[in-house]
Input
Amino acid sequence: MKKRVLLSMSGGIDSSVAAMILLQQGYDIVGVTYRTWDSVSEGCFEREKGCCTINSMMEAKKMAQKLNFPHHFLDLREPFKKSVIKDFVSEYLAGRTPNPCVVCNAEIKWGEVLRLADTLDCQYIATGHYAQIAEIDGNFYLEKGVDEKKDQTYFLWRLPQNVLQRTIFPLGQLTKTEVRKIAFDNGFEKLSQKTESQEICFIPNNDYREFLKNEVPDYEKICKEGCFLDKMGNILGKHNGYPNFTVGQRKGLKVAFGTPKYVAKILPETNSVVLADRADLETSELAARDCIFVNRSKLSSCVEVYARIRYRSPATKAVLTFDRDLVRVKFASNVWGVAAGQSVVFYQNNLIIGGGIIS
Output
């Protein structure tokens, strides 16, 4: 009897090629495309995360028809708004920089889809993410994809064990070039040349400021004129509201200082934004909250890892120590632009052993 898998499809090349591979491997596929947001944007982050426009949703359905397996649409707009959007808005208003893909993957993309998988008698769920899963001593670990440039494990660190043991990543051992070749060799030349969007799915034109303005009641009372401060608390000038800024930002300050200044800290309680020189944003340590580990009991009180503080940054050698509800991260060399609200993910031998939210 064939193993039944529920495949998340966005209409893009990655999930489509994932379908081709699963069919070649003998799986019985059921496709699902989920709607998470009423947006005019033409894409979603990396295009393969499932937040689809009407056009891409229909492309996913057509691909399922061409490959001859059933396909379902899943309306997740309400839970998406209650979890991902709510977190995104509250984090920005608290002066932090959220990572909505991390929340969405754990609570929507896998959480809600897994429920559908059970309803459809699917033993597994699959996506077009560039990641792998390794089982070691009964524990399931996210492992980096072969294609380092496309590896997406950073966004998946919150997936629990019961989800990982039922997840398949057909593209984990492939490069993007190889994925494009598979599409081409299977007669989908146009698909093989398809480009990807780097935007967050629910942010039209990648303008989160306009999104907050439209989503937050009485936003003008929150996002109002405030002060730029230096490290000593001296006033450097005026800004148009702290939600307009993120840590590490240099452009768009609309104030000239003679030398480049960067956003170093955001103080929502006083509507202040601290500016500093680039070197001032370097640090050798941080604290993380809401941490999750694959197997905390196997970790000593002092753990050596490679820690990644954002998707595009390299993992840096570090030591973890545990302090009540926090994990202290001490880096072997300085990292730049640590932003509260972002994820810090801990790797050992290309495996994710845990992660947390930068506090």
User: Anything to note?
Assistant: Confidence is low (pLDDT under 50) at residues 40-51. The chain has three domains: 4-204, 224-276, 281-358. The longest strand covers residues 282-293.
